[in-house]
Amino acid sequence: MESKKKIMSEKLPITEVNPINSRYYDYAHFTYPWHFHSQYEIIWVKESTGLCFAGDCIERFGPGTLIL
User: Which is it for strands 57-61 and 50-54: parallel, antiparallel or unpaired?
Assistant: First the structure.
């Protein structure tokens, strides 16, 4: 039987009073589960390389890449 991962609907703590949420991660590799949300997300890659899956786009990333 094939195992399929579910896509998580992430609920961000965004409000009119607090419209921006920021986080800093220092992981050896990306550990966040496959997810979606209605807010914009900006990711800046300090180090590392790989493939980014965002919306209907799959692109390579490397150090200094900015992902929206």
Answer: antiparallel
Question: Which runs of E-coded beta strand occur in the chain?
Answer: 8-9, 35-36, 43-44, 50-54, 57-61, 66-67
- Give the residue carrying structure tokens 């579910």: 6
Range of the domain at 17: 1-68
Residues 6+ apart with CB under 8 A from 42: 66, 67, 68
At 14-57, the pLDDT tens digits run 889 989 988 888 887 777 788 888 888 888 998 889 998 888 88
